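Budget justification aside, the reviewers requested a transparent look at the raw inputs and outputs of the sequence design task funded under Objective 1. We therefore reproduce one unedited record. The lines immediately below are the structure tokens for a 111-residue chain.
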């Protein structure tokens, strides 16, 4: 019969989770990712924002990403950013200077 042993790992927090945890990473001794995340939730039980953020984050386990960030709020945020950029392109006089391989230059409007 095979026995599962707990191993020590590190959860590295990004952005909002890092801010809510107050640290960039924490070590956990657990037999599975779910146990490590439960330990993290317990450690930060006094910070309700941490549990919410943890529910929508991805994680690094031994340097490899686990989980996804393609939930609805991310899609909405990207859509809002695209709209903002398009609005800026049309309403703000932004120009860029293109330099061609033959040395010629040209000023081009954003739209």
């Amino acid at each position: 019969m095979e026995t599962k042993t707990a191993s020590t790992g590190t959860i590295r927090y990004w952005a909002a989770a890092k801010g809510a945890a107050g640290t960039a990473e924490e070590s956990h001794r657990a037999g599975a990712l779910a146990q490590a995340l439960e330990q993290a939730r317990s450690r930060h039980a006094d910070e309700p924002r941490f549990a919410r953020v943890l529910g929508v984050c991805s994680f690094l386990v031994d340097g490899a990403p686990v989980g996804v960030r393609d939930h609805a709020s991310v899609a909405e945020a990207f859509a809002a950013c695209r709209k903002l950029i398009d609005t800026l392109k049309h309403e703000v006089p932004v120009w860029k200077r293109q330099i061609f391989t033959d040395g010629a230059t040209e000023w081009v409007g954003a739209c």
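The chain has a mean pLDDT of 77. The chain has four helices and six strands. Computational costs for records of this kind are itemized in the attached budget.
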